[in-house]
Write a structure and sequence with these properties.
- With about 300 residues, this protein is of the alpha/beta class.
- The protein has ten helices and 14 strands.
- The protein has a six-stranded mixed beta sheet with strand order 6-7-8-3-9-10, with helices on both faces. The chain has a four-stranded antiparallel beta sheet with strand order 2-1-4-5. The protein has a four-stranded antiparallel beta sheet with strand order 12-13-11-14, sandwiched between helices.
- A hairpin with a 2-residue loop joins strand 4 and strand 5.
- Helix 3 runs parallel beside helix 5 and helix 4 runs antiparallel to helix 5.
- The chain is elongated.
């Protein structure tokens, strides 16, 4: 349903998206996971037709976006980071507007509007103007507006940003239901737990590139059984070499003046000896973190920094 091939976007000397390729099938949820500035939103904006790529191609539901833009966009539902709502209109009126924008109408649209109001928990507030809604309610309606026309391909750009956990889980359940009905979903996030819970496959994005891709289990397997030990403080210039006791079997992921990251099996067991070893070499450790294998751990191992750095 979505096929992205060698996609690239540059702004003068800045490369925002750097030769990425991936596909999303019918009924599949594909997550782009990465920090702000990784290129996720630029990718979504290109796929939605808001931006023109520098090179590469985008195919949506069998239609090339550059050669057949109307047919390609007709299959899309887009939920942007910024709220695409009319505050003076009611929730039901917003849904009717966006359904009509995509050419839907009549009894079919009326049925779908009520279905979406119920799905996002706004049926009881359907007649109220959106300007009276809380932030979480607006986020729920924003998602419903992107889904009301029953798109074959759904583009979600950080749709749960700034909302509470309960609202987030409800929205993710709605997205899962659309995928079960056959929609291909491209979802961007910087929240590891969200990617792990929602996505069938994940592309980890950084610096405009996809640096790792696979199912959550496949990505976690890249770490083996290693934990990450993150030591912060005044680490000094003399970083103890991996392989020496008591940090044998540890891999130095990154090392700097204020932070050292090690990958180690049975990290909890090794941590006391690692701290003693570094302090004995002159480091002044102020903070220690132990991170078990997961998507955040993999991102740190691949980039040497945390997802939210």
């Amino acid at each position: 349903m979505i096929k992205i091939t060698h996609l690239r976007k540059t702004y003068d000397s800045v490369v925002a998206v750097d030769d990425i390729s991936f596909e999303v099938g019918s009924g599949e949820i594909y997550g782009l996971l990465g920090p702000n500035g990784a290129g996720k939103t630029t990718t979504i904006n290109i796929v939605s037709g808001l931006l023109k790529q520098t090179s590469g191609s985008v195919e949506i539901a069998g239609h090339d976006l550059s050669r057949e833009p109307k047919k390609a966009k007709a299959a899309l539902g887009v939920v942007p980071q910024e709220l695409a709502l009319y505050p003076e209109l009611s929730a039901r009126e917003n849904l009717k507007f966006w359904g009509g924008f995509y050419g839907r109408g009549g009894a079919e649209l009326s049925r779908r509007i009520e279905e979406m109001l119920d799905a996002v928990g706004l049926a009881a507030r359907a007649k109220e103007p959106v300007k009276k809604f809380s932030g979480g309610m607006k986020r729920r309606l924003n998602l419903a507006c992107g889904l009301v026309h029953g798109p074959k391909v759904l583009l979600l750009d950080e749709p749960t940003v700034g909302i509470d956990l309960q609202t987030r889980l409800r929205l993710l359940d709605v997205v899962k239901e659309e995928a079960r009905r056959g929609a291909a979903v491209l979802h961007t996030t910087h929240i590891m737990e969200e990617a792990e819970d929602l996505c069938d496959r994940v592309g980890i994005m950084d610096g405009g590139k996809i640096i790792a891709e696979g199912t959550v289990d496949e990505l976690k397997a890249m770490l083996g059984e290693k934990d990450l030990l993150v030591l912060q403080g005044e680490m000094g210039d003399d970083i103890p070499a991996a392989g020496a006791e008591p940090i044998r079997d540890c891999e130095v992921v990154s090392a700097g003046e204020d932070r050292v990251i090690l990958a180690a099996p049975r990290g909890a067991e090794k941590l006391p000896g690692v701290i003693k070893h570094f302090e004995g070499a002159g480091s002044r450790i102020r903070e220690v973190a132990l991170k078990e294998p997961g998507l955040e751990t993999l991102f740190i191992k691949l980039t040497g920094r945390a997802l939210r750095d």
